[in-house]
Amino acid sequence: MSSDCCSPLENETSSCCSPSEAQTQQNDHVSHDDHRQSVRDAYARVANAENADSCCGPEASCCGVSDDESINTLISSRLGYSEEEMAKAPSGADMGLGCGNPQAIASLKPGEVVVDLGAGGGFDCFLSAHEVGETGRVIGIDMTPDMLSKARNNAVKGNFKNVEFRLGEIEYLPVADETVDVIISNCVINLSPNKEQVFIDAFRVLKPGGRLAISDVVATIELPEEMRNDEMLIAGCMGNASLIEDLEAMIKAAGFKNVAINPKGESKEFIRDWAPDHNVTDYVVSATIEAVKPGGEPDGCCGSCC
Ligand SMILES: C[S@@+](CC[C@H](N)C(=O)[O-])C[C@H]1O[C@@H](n2cnc3c(N)ncnc32)[C@H](O)[C@@H]1O
Prior knowledge:
By secondary structure, this protein is α/β, with parallel strands linked by helices. Helices cover 35% and strands 18% of the residues. It has helices spanning 21-47, 69-79, 83-86, 103-106, 123-132, 145-157, 195-205, 225-228, 231-235, 244-253, 268-274; strands at residues 113-117, 137-142, 163-167, 180-186, 206-219, 257-264, 284-292.
């Protein structure tokens, strides 16, 4: 900007002196990066945690309590995973970081390509890998390098050939356009500083007819400012949760149809333990989020009859 433009002689309200759209966008990018860095630091601590004391969250939160496998198994059975399912993942993959079971709503089929947003130690990726089989493929995305290393080690441990992990942000996926059948995610999108962009990019990478099968924490009423500014509650999957109606609007605006967000009242039982000193369950709950990208097979097609 030239110094003349913003000289005191200029009308202060002239558009050349107000921040340009490009400048505002730059500022947003910087603040989004700061937000992601703070979340990344928290999950790097979880990935490297030797014990519960080094966890990022307030208490038994979605950002982890323990590297004790039996505790994590207990947490996952509360989230809706069966013992049979849990046995399919290599030891160490289940870090007790989820808030639901996206497999339960994903209806995965052999041969499908699945992307897991915020894969963590890879637990849901390994379960999905069993469902899509050798002809399918699972790609786990995570922005925390320490988490990614953990997931890759787990893949080697479990000898998984159809799973890969890529470093990246869920807002800007390292995945080509229209190559994915199903996007799953477990307790991650609430952490994003730019959820609109998450759904826009999910739409980009899905094939026509592709679907979202997500478990996440959502807000039932507006969170008080002190909760929204609490870094522990943000990293703990509560403080940055969006209102159900806002999420629905974002998903529709990205182009999806058949949007369904179903809060799971029973999840308050475990969410309460994430931050016992705050009345978090007055504001947030875990929900399933489903939607479909238009296109693909004509509606109502039943295979051979079409
Ligand atoms: C609560 S943990 C959930 C991990 C996994 N989905 C599970 O259920 O075990 C959140 C994970 O998402 C990752 N994450 C958070 N925000 C992200 C973003 N904007 N882009 C990519 N990864 C992100 C973190 O690094 C962390 O591994």
